[in-house]
Structure formats: C-alpha cells, structure tokens
Amino acid sequence: MLEKVMEILRANRLAALATVGPDGWPHCTMIGFAHDGVRIYFAIAPNSRKFTDIQRDDRVSLAIGRDVIDPSSGARRCCFKDARRVEGRATSARKE
C-alpha cells in the first residue's frame, strides 16, 4: 500500500483540502502540495479561512487525485489527519 501512496504523491501536485468551519460545516478548497515521503506540505496564507479553520480545529481531510476519462482507472487516496504549522524558510521542493 505504501508504494501505491507514493505513486499517487509523485503523480500529483494538487489536492482538495477540507477544514472544519466555525459553524461545523466543511470548507473545501484546492491546494498545491509538496511531499517528503508520505509527509505532505502545503502553503497557505495566515489570513486565509483555511489557516483560521486549522488554528481553531486542526482536523483536516485531504483528497489527492486527478480527472480521468474512466473514473475506475484513476488512482486516488483520501486521508484524514490533524494539521500542524511548520515555520521556517521557504525552499523549493526537490524533484523525484
């Protein structure tokens, strides 16, 4: 299963990130991401709704995949996790 996850991460750079809004309703937006192994990183503005939602409730859902002609042929994964802020100097993602 790990190899399948890595294949999906290497083949995609966009994902749908869902956060929990202040009213309890999900808030979902498209984001770009980078990864280091299975650890996923994304940059969001500190004044964005996503950032505010994560500061209040760190539960997130991330769906990674892409549009395909035959939906049954597309590899995709969805994961649920708590989000953590990572601070530091921005660097470019390394190519794999």
CATH class: Mainly Beta
Summed up, the domain count is 1
What is the chains' assembly state? Answer: single chain
Question: What sequence of helices (H) and strands (E) makes up the elements?
Answer: HEEEEHEE
CATH superfamily, please? Electron Transport, Fmn-binding Protein, Chain A
Number of strands: 6
How far the N terminus sits from the C terminus, by CA atoms, comes to: 19 Å
- Main β-sheet, in a few words? 4 strands, antiparallel
Instruction: Look up the CATH topology.
Output: Pnp Oxidase, Chain A
User: How much beta, percentage-wise?
Assistant: 25-35%
The chain-level structural class is alpha+beta
What is the residue-mean pLDDT, rounded to a whole number? 81
Helix content: 10-25%
**Backbone CA Rg:** 14 Å
Instruction: Enumerate how many helices there are, as a single number.
Output: 2
Widest sheet: strand ordering: 2-1-5-6
Low-confidence stretches: 91-96
- CATH architectural label: Roll
